[in-house]
Amino acid sequence: MKFQETRLLWWHWLLIPALAIVGWYCSSSGPGGPGNTNQQAPQFSLQNLDGKTVSLKDFGNKVIIVDFWATWCGPCRMEIPRLNQLYLDNKEKGLQIIGVSMDDVKQFLLKNRVDYPVLMGNEEVANDFGGVEGLPTKFVIDRSGKVIRKLVGYQVSELEKTIRELLG
């Protein structure tokens, strides 16, 4: 193989993964990217673990994180302690976290502490938010009811930064 052909092959091996990473970043959390939707949050009603119907409107004029997750998802489980702490540190400032479980979570919650409400999710609610490509996926809703951020994957540091900006 000639030197120029080898160099061109190396560029392909570097360029394709780099473009994939940039695309993922822009779609999930990049400033000004599609992850910043600024659209009205869908109004949903789901059941909590006691069978009571809970609606988004029940949480009023708060900054809300809607976290789609599942018990089989390792990154979802890893972020729960940090979400607990984020919630406990900021709930008096107007933060509400709502866990939306995409699987049966009852046994998991008997053994693991989650300080914020957990609702039983479904595909309809996920689709109402524009789709959930992977878990965990978090939607940040501002006090006016607009989804201002979508974060896909384990991105708790980015979430904390966004919450600090919104809560002041």
Structural features, described:
α2 (74-90) links the parallel β4 and β5. Helices cover 40% and strands 22% of the residues. The protein has a six-stranded mixed beta sheet with strand order 1-8-7-4-5-6, with helices on one face. The chain has a two-stranded antiparallel ribbon with strand order 2-3. It is built from five helices and eight strands. The protein folds into two domains: 1-34; 36-167, Glutaredoxin, CATH 3.40.30. Mean pLDDT is 85; it is low at 14-34. By secondary structure, the protein is an alpha/beta fold.
Strand order of the largest sheet: 1-8-7-4-5-6
Uncertain segments are 14-34
Major beta sheet summary: 6 strands, mixed
Helicity level? 25-40%
**CATH architectural label of the largest domain:** 3-Layer(aba) Sandwich
The strand count comes to 8
- Say what the CATH topology of the largest domain is: Glutaredoxin
Task: Write down the CATH class of the largest domain.
Answer: Alpha Beta
Structural class: alpha/beta
Into which percentage range does the β-strand content fall? Answer: 15-25%
Amino- and carboxy-terminal Cα gap:
59 Å
